[in-house]
Amino acid sequence: MECAECLVGMWEGWSSWSRCSTSCGSGVMSRERSCLNGTAGVSGCPGDTESFGQCNQHSCPAWSAWKPWSVCSASCGNSGVRARSRDCYDDSIGDIVTDSSCGQGAATEIETCGRGPCPVWSSWGRWGSCSVSCGVGWSERTRLCRNGTVGDMGCHIGKSLDKKVCNTWDCPSTCDVTELEVKNRTLTPDALFAASSEMVGCEAYNARLNGDLAWCPTTNDTKRWIQVDLTTPMEVTGISVQGFVNNNRVKKAPKYSWVSRFGVLYYDESTSLFDAVRDNAGRARLFSGLNSPVSTDNRHWNSIKSRIWKIQVLDTSPTRHGCLRFELLTCQGNPIMGRSSEAGSGMEI
Fold first, then answer.
1. At CB < 8 A and 24+ separation, what contacts does 153-156 make?
2. Counting C-beta atoms within 10 Å of the first and last residue's C-beta, which end of the chain has fewer, N or C?
C-alpha cells in the first residue's frame, strides 16, 4: 500500500466547556474533542479526548454568626418567646444574599423563655387595732407584692395599704347621765306613744322601763317601730332597753322576749323627716340590744335635741316576737320633760 493512501488521524477542535459542577466553592468543568481518521492516543492524535478545568473558585454564601437574642416577650413567667436571626452572606460580592442561597438551615430561631415568677399581691393581713378606743378611728391592714415591687405589672392595680373606719361609737359622755322620765306616766301620758302594731295587753304605752308589761308588736308586723312624743324638743344622749318576762299576764305574748338589734331615729324639724342617730363617720348606727329578757343595757350617743323619738326594731328573740321596754337618757342638769330635775316624783308603772 502506497503512503499516499495512508490516512493520518488528527484532532478536531475542543468543544465548549461544560457547565460548572457547582455554583461556588471550587467546581469542575469539562470539554471534549474527537480524533478524525484515527485513534486517540496514537500517531496524529496524541493526548486525551477529554479535558478538565476548575471553575467557580469563589466561596459559597454562608450563614453569619447568630445575632443576640431579642428581649423575652413576657416580663415574667414562662410563657414568653424570644428570637434571634442570622444573614446569608456572599463573600464574592461582599453582600447579603437571599436565605435560599445558603441552603440548609434557617435564618430565624425562636424559643420559649421566662423571666422568673410574676409579681402578685399576697393575701391581706389581719386588721390592726383601732387608732382610738372610742369615737371615729382607723384600722389598717397591709399586703405585699411578691416577686416584685408595688407598681410592677401584677401589682399595679390596688394598694398595699387598706383602711377602714372603726370604733365609730361615741366616747363616754363626760356628763352624769340620768333618765328623761319617759316612764313617768304623769309626764308622758299614754297618748304620746305610738307603734307600727301592738298586741292586746302589750300596747305601745306599756313600753315604760321597769314596768310590769311591755310593748310587743304583732308577729306579722314587718316594720316594727315604736315612738314617743316628748311634746317639746329635748336633749337626748342615750337609751336604756329592757326585755320582757311574761309570767302569763298576756296570753299571746312569748314567755321570754327581747330586742337584740335596733336603730334609733329622731324627728328633724328642719327637714320634717326622721333621721337616724349616726356614728362619727355619718353612718346610721345599728345598736346591739340584749341577750336576755332580764337585763337592762344602756346605749349612748352625742346629744341630739328633738321632740319625737322612734326605735326601729331589727332583730328579736324569739324571731318576729320581741318585746321592748325603754327609757330615754339625758345629761343631768338638762331640763327633764319640761320640768326641773327634782320634779321626778310622779306616778310610775
1. 153/75, 153/76, 153/118, 153/119, 154/76, 154/118, 154/119, 154/120, 154/121, 155/119, 155/120, 155/121
2. N
